[in-house]
Design brief:
Helices cover 34% and strands 21% of the residues. The chain contains 16 helices and 23 strands. Strand 1 and strand 2 form a beta hairpin. The chain is globular, with a radius of gyration of 23 Å. The N and C termini lie far apart (64 Å).
């Protein structure tokens, strides 16, 4: 049993399958993570722009983490209420139904091999409009559809096998579910389905037009079941047989749920290598006019219908601070940045726009390039470090304002997680710029917790979302405190700097 557990205590195990590692987390009824096991696995780069994973590495590391968690905590099936799964989204796996073996490596969400074909598709404005209306997404190599098509078109015998009904497609959640149930269940949830470019987010079904457009047989696709519902049981020959699998959600939607963003207008931002901002918009999908994505949000049991979210991303989040450290040598450790930023009273007029690979939403200018402006003889490394942290906050500000305009819903609280959310200077400045409260939970495992919450609500481990909200105590709360005049000056400088870096033919 887990340390400090009593003999009658039961747990939820959340499997968190990410882009670089697989983790298993033991969650108790108080919403605490009692134990964690993590295994990294190799990244495969066959050629520039291509990114793959071996699906067997995903399985080995994920099942290995689960096994170690069970053994090290002396757990049996009787100790486990349910299993939950959260996963890297869009990553595509195709396997043989009879043998259970993949026909090709997993094509990772980051992979750009199909970009030329998708750019050609996106150039057709009428087709793009149709795709956006059906899926909430734009035609892009990021999503799963073109990856499936590539496998069918480039792996010998794959298309014939698919048309004969022998091949199955799944995002990583489906691959894990298939394996855990020994092939008894081929299913996914709406949050993952909505990232394939094949799922109609209004009818909540696979879309025949899109399947024909990409040349994908419907027989390959998994059944779509509610995120908080019963997906099956672990196989009878598993280490813990007969355990229900009851919660599945893609990582960013799982984090939204894990942050207890259950109502319209509630939002979370994950500060990672980039930043992922999601705002719950309720039961009506909001079409964005600011280059944001409309996607499915995970729902609690008993929801009257599908719930939706707006999603936007910042390309350069923590990666900007890594560049400040490694590229410019201004930091030995990114953790020092908060104290260094506070060592000067302001940014000294310095503004950084980190458009190293273009600007994401709401600008979507791939030709934009980064700039540092406002340098004087009085500029120090501390000013540049501070300006870099402020750039993260300004980019999130622009996403939030775009979401507020699209929804339209005001943001009163932003829930934060991810590595850079530990930076106290950044969190306070983010609150100042957004002019709203920030809540940083004591338990930063929001992605895994979201999946666990979905499973626990489905089984009755927790009775309601209100009970989940009550588990959240001890959040760090940041309140805005920037004067109006200073707020206006900082935003005006940021907007001018952005204008200078955008591409103008």
């Amino acid at each position: 049993m887990a340390e400090g557990a009593n003999v009658s205590e039961r747990f939820i195990i959340a499997l968190d399958q990410g882009t670089t590692s697989s983790r298993a987390l033991l969650v108790d009824k108080a919403g605490r993570v009692r134990a964690t096991v993590q295994n990294e696995f190799p990244q495969i780069y066959p050629q520039p722009g291509w990114v793959e994973h071996d699906p067997r590495d995903i399985l080995a590391t994920q099942l290995g983490a689960l096994t170690e968690l069970l053994v090290s905590n002396n757990l049996s099936a009787a100790d486990i209420d349910s299993l939950a799964i959260t996963n890297q989204r869009e990553t595509t796996i195709v396997w043989d139904r009879e043998t259970g073996q993949p026909v090709y490596n997993a094509i990772v969400w980051q992979c750009r091999r199909t970009a030329p074909q998708m750019e050609e598709m996106a150039a057709d404005e009428q087709l793009t409009q149709t795709i956006v209306e059906k899926t909430g997404l734009v035609p892009d190599a990021y999503f799963s559809a073109s990856k499936i098509k590539w496998i069918l078109d480039n792996v010998e015998g794959a298309r014939e096998a698919a048309e004969a009904g022998r091949l199955a497609f799944g995002t990583v959640d489906t691959w894990l579910l298939w394996t855990l149930t020994r092939g008894a269940v081929h299913a996914t949830d709406p949050t993952n389905a909505s990232r394939t470019l094949l799922f109609n987010i209004h009818t909540m079904e696979w879309d025949p037009f899109l399947l024909e457009l990409f040349g994908i047989p419907a027989s390959m696709l998994p059944e779509v079941r509610p995120s908080a519902g019963f997906f099956g049981e672990t196989a009878t020959d598993a280490l813990v047989p007969g355990v229900p699998i009851c919660g599945i959600a893609g990582d960013q939607q799982a984090a939204l749920f894990g942050q207890c963003c259950f109502s319209p207008g509630q939002a979370k931002n994950t500060y990672g290598t980039g930043c992922f901002l999601l705002m719950h918009t309720g039961t009506t999908p909001c079409r964005s006019s600011h280059n944001l994505i409309t996607t499915i949000a995970a729902s609690a049991p008993g929801a009257p219908g599908p719930e939706y979210a707006l999603e936007g991303s910042v390309f350069m989040g923590g990666a900007l601070m890594q560049w400040i450290r490694d590229g410019l040598g201004l930091l030995e450790d990114v953790a020092e940045s908060s104290a260094i930023a506070r060592s000067v009273p302001d940014n000294g007029g310095v503004v950084i726009v980190p458009a190293f690979t273009g600007m994401g939403a709401p600008y979507w200018d791939g030709a934009a390039r980064g700039i540092i402006c406002g340098l004087t003889r009085g500029t120090t490394s501390a000013h540049i470090v501070r300006a870099a942290l402020e750039a993260l906050a300004f980019q999130v500000h622009d996403l939030v304002r775009a979401m507020e305009a699209d929804a339209p819903l005001p943001l009163s609280v932003l829930n934060v997680d991810g590595g850079a959310s530990a930076n106290d200077f950044l969190m306070q400045f983010q609150s100042d710029v957004l002019r709203c409260r920030l809540h940083r939970p004591q338990n930063c495992e929001t992605t895994a917790m979201g999946a666990a919450y979905l499973a626990g609500l489905a089984t009755g481990f927790w009775e309601s979302t209100a009970e989940l909200e009550a588990l959240r105590s001890g959040d760090d709360v940041y309140h805005p405190g920037l004067e109006d005049a200073r707020h206006a000056v900082l935003l005006e400088r940021w907007n001018r700097a952005v204008g200078r870096c955008l591409y103008r033919p």
